[in-house]
Amino acid sequence: MAGAITLERILALNAAYARCIDSDAMEGWPDFFLDKCLYVVTSAENHKAGFEGGVIYADTRGMLTDRVAALRKANIYEKQSYRHIVGLPTVVKNGGDTAECETPFLVVRIMHDGVTTIFASGVYLDTCREAGGSLKFEKRIAVCDSSRIDTLMALPL
Amino acid sequence: MAGAITLERILALNAAYARCIDSDAMEGWPDFFLDKCLYVVTSAENHKAGFEGGVIYADTRGMLTDRVAALRKANIYEKQSYRHIVGLPTVVKNGGDTAECETPFLVVRIMHDGVTTIFASGVYLDTCREAGGSLKFEKRIAVCDSSRIDTLMALPL
Amino acid sequence: MAGAITLERILALNAAYARCIDSDAMEGWPDFFLDKCLYVVTSAENHKAGFEGGVIYADTRGMLTDRVAALRKANIYEKQSYRHIVGLPTVVKNGGDTAECETPFLVVRIMHDGVTTIFASGVYLDTCREAGGSLKFEKRIAVCDSSRIDTLMALPL
Questions:
Q1: What pLDDT, in 10s, does the model give residues C13-67?
Q2: Do the beta carbons of residue B19 and residue B108 sit within 8 Å?
């Protein structure tokens, strides 16, 4: 069944996304999204309250590309890295060429001196869509469990 | 092969279980178990010593339902959330309509002020069983690595 | 397709590897590798700089077996345990009887008094090879995000 959105493809998409960020290959990050997309980082509290905005809000791939460019400048004076541990996805709805998934994440931050701390935990609320043979995010809402979101957030979740 | 217990189904079961707890949809939690089941939370030390009991012990689904009701009352004065990061399952034995699996977990707790800490780590020792087209837990023993288990444990692991 | 290196087999290999270490079944650990293999634990900084060595370096399975023997002696006076949470693998290249994968990991350490801390995070850079019906590591480089690697590292990553 060509184009079916299998769990295997969803696993692979999530794995590749995390790898892109953690291996500092950020220039490839916007390619995980459709041109017209929604990428939001928000808190559980705000999400529950129905606020659409967030710490990060982008609704086109172009905005994501701009963000990467900004990060590259900002990163000149920073030296820290992140590691995303992505949990197991739940496919909430699977409708042929689009699927809704929820996937938990935990991100740790490694500072220059080697100290590692929990940076964020939460859940991705995603809509994935078949696009020319590959699976892309039409929507990825990263809902952070904590309301203490680092407003200088260097890298996307 | 209808009814085969594939790795994919085991992944999906584990993902759905964690999602149920973390999204505060606890009323659905007992449905992951058979009527006659065994759900235990214990420590590695006690498990190794062969003690059958644990911090939490339930051997019917009714006991799990009671537990949810109790939690709902207790939670009135609490405000904290949890995030389960479930690792990759190992299928230890797969015998047609039942499978034995071991799956590591890490749970972080997010307090009201946003501080996130490691709450528990350990491994689920499971027996899954085919039941009317869906996979359920006949047995889930959550063996915590640490002996310091929070005795006021608000949510199940 | 006999012998194909599917994502499912890669998931199972990673799960079994972590389980072997965390369940203190270390004598079985060398069996995850080919006779002629490469197992290295290093830091992201050293790996990026192109240094081939590492905190741990072994290029035969015999060296891994020796390491386990040494650990068993060293462990007489220690009492701590580890929990590996292995993330989702990305298959970077899949060429029939060999596959290159990258898989993130997070390891927590549980001390005797029950205190749990983040021990290491990083990524496995692997080459898996089909060997007599099972999948083995021809190469596993554990690249730790932090340069602060415990030089007394009791257990392998």
A1: 999 999 999 998 999 999 999 999 999 999 999 999 998 778 889 999 999 999 9
A2: no
Q: Torsions phi, psi of A122, nearest 5?
A: 165, -155
Q: Cα-flanking dihedrals φ and ψ of residue A78, to 5°?
A: -115, 160
User: How does residue A12 score in pLDDT terms, banded at 50, 70 and 90?
Assistant: very high
Side-chain-side CA neighbours of A150 within 13 Å: the count stands at 13
| Residue numbers in A near B18 (CB within 8 A) | 87-88, 104
pLDDT confidence band for A71 (50 / 70 / 90): confident
Nearest CA to CA, how far is C42 from chain B (Å)? Answer: 23
Distance, CA of C105 to CA of C122 (rounded, Å): 5
- Whether residues A118 and C118 touch (CB distance < 8 A) is answered with yes
Instruction: Give, in degrees to the nearest 5, the angle at Cα A21 between A18 and A26.
Output: 140
With b for 16 or more beta-carbon neighbours within 10 A and e for fewer, the A71-95 pattern comes to beeeeeeeeebbbbbbbbbbbeebe
Kindly report the number of other CB atoms within 10 A of residue A150's CB atom: 12
Q: Are C99 and C128 in contact (CB under 8 A)?
A: yes
The mean of the pLDDT values for chain C is: 90
